[in-house]
Amino acid sequence: MRKTDIIIRNETPNDFSAVEHLTREAFWNVYRPGCTEHYILHCFRNDPAFVPELDLVLGQAGRLVGHILYVHAFIETDDGQCLPILTFGPLSIDPAHQKQGLGKLLVNTSLEKAAALGFGAVAITGNLEFYRHSGFVMGKSRNIRYADDPEADYFLVKELAPGFLHGVSGVFHDPEGYFVAESDPAGFEAFDAQFPHREKQKLPGQLG
Fold first, then answer.
1. Integer Cα distance of 69 and 56 in angstroms
2. Cα–Cα distances in angstroms (integers) from residue 72 to residues 78, 79, 108, 114, 187, in the given order
3. Would you say the C-alpha torsion 122, 123, 125, 129 has a positive or negative sign?
4. pLDDT in tens, the chain (208 residues)
5. Residues in CB range of 81: below 8 A, 6 or more apart
6. In sequence order, which residues have a C-beta less than 8 Å from that of residue 59 and are 6 or more positions away?
7. Exposure winner among 67, 110, 146, 164, fewest CB in 10 A?
8. Are 37 and 90 in contact, with CB atoms under 8 Å apart?
9. Strand runs (DSSP E) across the chain, as ranges?
């Protein structure tokens, strides 16, 4: 990978269609037959939780091949407070450009920018083996529990400001925007119908 070929910048409205197609390609049949991530992305752009400063695309050799989206989230602390943090996703890399370090580069660049903007921590669900290289640890090791699965090894957190999570214990809930395809199935079907037809397949390893 030649870093001189790579540009990471903020997404613009001119990128929207290409990024939605990229996201659909990156997630199609990965976690479920078909995917909904492109619709989640589409809807989040008009959601108050959306963080436009951290809506980033990655281009390589003049082609858009990666994207990451951040949204506001919070930890419901055990003493009854709401601690503002971030979460991110979808993180999309074009299938032809995966396993080349581009996802890690995009994540690390976006985390550095989030820290520079003054955000204190990030929580995600993901593969610890991948994300530990970016400084993530299991949430339960920091007394932060995932609402859907309190003992989850795949629920991860990272401090952006040293000590931000010191003494904090509580529960993280996924922002509602991640469930938009379930809450508005007709809207999702109409949106997905605008894309080229692809066969939905039930494959080993999918979540459901």
1. 7
2. 20, 21, 18, 11, 23
3. positive
4. 455 689 999 999 999 999 999 999 999 999 899 999 999 999 999 999 999 999 999 999 889 999 999 999 999 999 999 999 999 999 999 999 999 999 999 999 999 999 999 999 999 999 999 999 999 999 999 999 999 999 999 999 999 999 999 999 999 999 999 999 999 999 999 999 999 999 999 988 777 6
5. 170
6. 6, 7, 8, 9, 65, 66
7. 164
8. yes
9. 6-10, 56-60, 63-77, 82-93, 121-125, 137-138, 144-146, 155-159, 170-172
Could you identify the residue written with the tokens 């593969």?
Answer: 127
CA dihedral 98, 127, 44, 59 (to 10 degrees): -20
Q: How far is CA 205 from the centre of its chain?
A: 20
**What's the one-letter identity of residue 110?**
S
The DSSP code for 1 is -
Report the distance separating Cα 182 and Cα 107, nearest Å. Answer: 27
Computed on alpha carbons and rounded to an integer, the radius of gyration of the chain in Å comes to: 17
End-to-end CA distance of the chain: 34
